[in-house]
Write a sequence for this structure.
């Protein structure tokens, strides 16, 4: 039994008049609405459970609903479009809200009927129902919630366009798996819930293990339908077991399977083919690899899949499938017997992207970015697609380790590479590349003897195979291994061999990298002028062709050279440039921030310098990023000098301020434009200069002030550098005229 919305009489509702007991009551309600007699007429689906989450989305959508007449929530099956739209309509506080449910319809001609039924419009003899609908809604203030439009999108769009153009007080809120492309339509893509754990707990009726719940929600991409179904299962399946079994969740969550299957069945044959083949790309994909797996043009097909929310476009212009959708696509792939051929296409394409490491002396920035973008796909291909005996496992494992080096977490990837390397034959195509990365791994893990051995084996193998083009890079790797051992002479010799090979083969960028590395080594040995020649020659090439992080390292070295020469303006500018280049990666910015701290101290701003050096010192400890020996000695000497130059309270104040800095605060402080200013001597430096001007030796000054002989030497050296003086006599003359 139902209750008449007009007179309150109980009645057995008929399909044609589900809200009213008679046509009279329907017409009476209509006249009341037209006359403004009704207050709020809200015909929205009811739910027994509470609406949970989506706070930020609701806030954004309420603003959009106030500004636009046509708003469509677009998202994949189970993403919660309908529930969110209902809650949005409920909070919109419109005078009248009606729901137009299209999900149960199967024919285009039923769309107008659904609109008419929802708003209480009858068919008139001899008049098209659509005409009557437009006439009767001409002056009616109403919000129409049009639900599940995707399978009848074209017809729905035609009706909506007509309503919006002819009925100025009608507003439409639609849900669909693809945009309707209506005039003036604002599309709001809906993704997984950021607060899905709240939904799980509410639906499960128990808090349970927060970590297990978070894991379940993350594996389900925060898709509300999947989360709700999983929450219901948690009553009979322990949370830990449920989390472990989520790889097979499509077997568990039949409701989600049905929703995805419905979307799939609406695809054309070519769209279905691409859909299932994309299942083997869990890391997302661009047009290039999508075209490879499909074997032909994909722009139109991929656009159709995106429009139907079976793939999602990311902010970086790549696409991906929600995990639940991808698993369903994988099942379809197996059914069609296409897993093998699709896997082979993916493996070949990924290895092609790693091929420059085999044949060229240095990777370009774009080649590195590609390997980063495809990391998850490489990991999946290595674990699930490539055969155990396939030599291409070496390439895939090396690509994984290459990216992991950049990310700073390489132990697991390194162990995998070593295992594959030891299992591979001596003539494996990618063995040289794997040996090189085994050397880099050993250097990172401070197994320096092994690092030298692997690098030497890579060089020997390359030489015997005539692969001269990569010798510049391999000798640079060997130099790094020797450097880790503290074998300075062999490291320098290997770098010179690297430069020789690079020059002979025209590897300008690789030569620049090796030249910079040799310059840094010479600088640490005190050969400042020789280092300057190498670094100044390398830096212009690196600025044009190298990755930003490589440029930042070279810029820092140039700053160190300027600092050693006493050119504080240039040093400060170089360190500031390095800090800006690495601003998005605080670990990489440490040395540039420290460099700015040293410049601050040399400019007389000792407290500021202490703050920066101590902040970086603390971050190095936290992140386990030890400085190189020469740089560590420089910063330690600066702190010792500051301790002597500042009063005890001032030094302690600077220590505390530095320890309180986070990475962002330290970077912003380091980039202070007033860092380098007219040289100002500290009180302690002034005392040292006055005593030197009286003719005292360094030892006598130390005894007079109660400080160490080494500290006095540092003060004298830094003051001469700051004032651009070269002798003690000039220093004494300056003091007498000051």
């Amino acid at each position: 039994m139902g209750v008449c919305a007009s007179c309150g009489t109980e009645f057995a509702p008929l399909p044609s008049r589900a809200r009213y007991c008679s046509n009279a009551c329907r017409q009476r309600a209509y006249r009341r609405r037209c006359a403004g007699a009704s207050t709020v007429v809200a015909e929205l689906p009811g739910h027994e459970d509470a609406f949970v989450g989506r706070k930020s989305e609701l806030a954004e959508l309420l603003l959009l609903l106030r500004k636009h007449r046509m708003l469509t929530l677009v998202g994949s099956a189970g993403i919660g479009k309908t529930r969110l739209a209902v809650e949005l309509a409920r909070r919109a506080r419109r005078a009248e809200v009606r729901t137009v449910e299209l999900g149960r319809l199967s024919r285009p001609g039923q769309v107008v009927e659904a609109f008419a039924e929802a708003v209480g419009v009858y068919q008139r003899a001899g008049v098209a129902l659509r005409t009557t609908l437009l006439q009767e809604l001409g002056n009616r203030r109403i919000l129409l919630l049009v639900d599940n439009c995707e399978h009848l999108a074209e017809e729905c769009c035609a009706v909506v366009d007509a309503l919006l153009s002819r009925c100025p007080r009608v507003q439409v809120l639609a849900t669909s798996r693809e945009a309707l492309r209506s005039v003036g339509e604002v599309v709001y893509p809906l993704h997984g819930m950021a607060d899905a754990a709240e939904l799980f707990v509410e639906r499960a009726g128990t808090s349970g293990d927060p970590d297990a719940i978070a894991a379940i929600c993350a594996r389900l991409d925060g898709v509300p339908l999947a989360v709700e179904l999983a929450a219901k299962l948690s009553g009979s399946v322990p949370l830990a077991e449920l989390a472990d079994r989520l790889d097979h969740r499509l077997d568990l969550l039949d409701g989600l399977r049905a929703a995805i299957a419905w979307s799939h069945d609406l695809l054309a044959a070519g769209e279905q083919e691409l859909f299932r083949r994309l299942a083997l790309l869990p890391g997302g994909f661009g047009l290039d690899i999508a075209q490879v797996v499909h074997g032909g043009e994909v722009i139109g097909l991929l656009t159709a899949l995106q429009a139907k929310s079976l793939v999602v476009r990311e902010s970086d212009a790549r696409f991906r499938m929600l995990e639940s959708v991808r698993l369903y696509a994988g099942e379809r792939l197996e059914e069609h017997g296409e897993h093998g051929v699709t896997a082979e296409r993916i493996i070949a394409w990924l290895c092609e992207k790693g091929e420059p490491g085999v044949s060229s002396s240095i990777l370009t920035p774009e080649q590195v970015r590609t390997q980063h973008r495809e990391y998850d796909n490489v990991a999946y291909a290595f674990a699930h697609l490539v055969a155990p005996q396939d030599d291409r496992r070496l390439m895939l494992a090396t690509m994984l380790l290459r990216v992991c080096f950049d990310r700073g977490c390489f132990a697991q990837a390194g162990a995998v590479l070593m295992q594959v390397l030891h299992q591979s034959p001596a003539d494996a195509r990618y063995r040289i590349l794997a040996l090189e990365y085994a050397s880099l791994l050993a250097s990172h893990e401070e197994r320096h003897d092994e690092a030298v051995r692997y690098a030497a084996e890579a060089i020997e193998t390359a030489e015997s195979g005539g692969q001269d083009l990569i010798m510049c890079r391999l000798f640079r790797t060997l130099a790094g291994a020797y450097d880790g051992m503290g074998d300075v002479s062999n490291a320098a010799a290997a770098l010179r061999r690297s430069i020789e090979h690079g020059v002979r083969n025209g590897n300008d960028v690789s030569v620049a990298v090796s030249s910079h590395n040799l310059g840094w080594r010479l600088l640490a040995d005190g050969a400042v002028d020789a280092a300057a020649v190498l670094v100044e020659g390398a830096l212009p090439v690196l600025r044009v062709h190298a990755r930003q992080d490589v440029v930042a390292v070279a810029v820092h070295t140039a700053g160190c050279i300027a600092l050693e020469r006493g050119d504080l303006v240039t040093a400060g500018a170089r360190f500031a440039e390095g800090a800006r280049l690495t601003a998005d990666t605080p670990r990489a910015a440490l040395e540039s921030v420290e460099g700015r701290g040293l410049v601050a101290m040399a400019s007389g701003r000792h407290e500021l310098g202490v703050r920066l050096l101590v902040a970086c010192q603390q971050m190095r400890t936290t992140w386990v990023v030890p400085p190189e020996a020469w740089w560590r000695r420089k910063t330690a000497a600066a702190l010792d000098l500051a301790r002597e130059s500042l009063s005890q309270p001032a030094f302690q104040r600077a220590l505390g301020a530095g320890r309180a800095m986070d990475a962002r605060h330290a970077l912003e402080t380091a980039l202070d434009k007033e860092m380098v200013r007219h040289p100002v001597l500290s009180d302690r430096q002034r005392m040292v200069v006055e005593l030197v001007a009286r003719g005292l030796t360094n030892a006598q000054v130390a005894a007079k002030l109660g400080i160490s002989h080494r500290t006095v030497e540092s003060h004298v050296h830094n003051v001469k550098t700051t004032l651009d003086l070269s002798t003690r006599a000039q220093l004494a003359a300056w003091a007498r005229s000051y």
Residues 6-10, 30-41 have pLDDT under 50 and may be disordered. The beta strands are 2-3, 10-11, 41-43, 70-74, 96-101, 142-147, 170-176, 186-189, 312-313, 319-320. The first helix runs from residue 23 to 34.
